[in-house]
Fold these 2 entries.
Entry 1:
Amino acid sequence: MDLKKTTAPVNTITYNKAKIEAPTGNVYEAITIIAKRASQINTEIKKELLEKLDEFATYNDSLEEIFENKEQIEVSKFYEKLPKPHALAVQEWLEGKIYYREAK
């Protein structure tokens, strides 16, 4: 997932209910699918962030020395400015990028 190229909104916006429910015909089913995708996106982002922050980790037992790593701060700021996982999931849903199937 390329987070830099996303067009998902950072702020909360109102969506047309008919557009959300159009692929399934049921708004509750659509929201359930979007919520599951948002959880997947959140897990991916968290894993990616932890991997990047782990590169800057220092392992000392001394409480006296606390380092302020500028690269680590920049990485954290980048991830804070990203759209939230639910916004990314809704954007993917509206663009038809989410695959789903009915369990029978």
Note: The two ends are 30 Å apart (CA to CA).
Entry 2:
Amino acid sequence: MTENNLYINYELITDKLADIKKSVALLNTIGQVEPQKFYKDEILVSGAKYQLILSIEAAQSICNHLAARIAKEAPRSYADCFRILGDNGILSRDLVQKLVSMARFRNLLANQYGKVDNSIVLDILKHNIVDLITYTKEIKLFISSARG
């Protein structure tokens, strides 16, 4: 058992990983809808935006916890947190850049929800949701090694 093991809240991480998994499943379902149907259905668009916010915030919650517990560093922004995990070898460099973009998009959704171009939302559903799956895998790998 490592010294860091005493400080990691595994229950929090497990709960947030489950939140991401649930959101990703819903986002994948929405992403399979024909584009024209997606654009015309305000419930689908709204659901996609909301699930994106939820999943990114769950990833952020894990990130903040590990940054504080492992790196002993407070992020200056949502995006900075992922950089901290990358600098500490918890996340791969390629994934860090994708998550930084995702965190910035979350800020856009949260602050300018109605102004977000729905084609960007659909593009993210079709091409970038895999980044959240990769994130969960890398976090699980780190947690597995931290538990010893």
Note: The chain has one domain: 3-147.
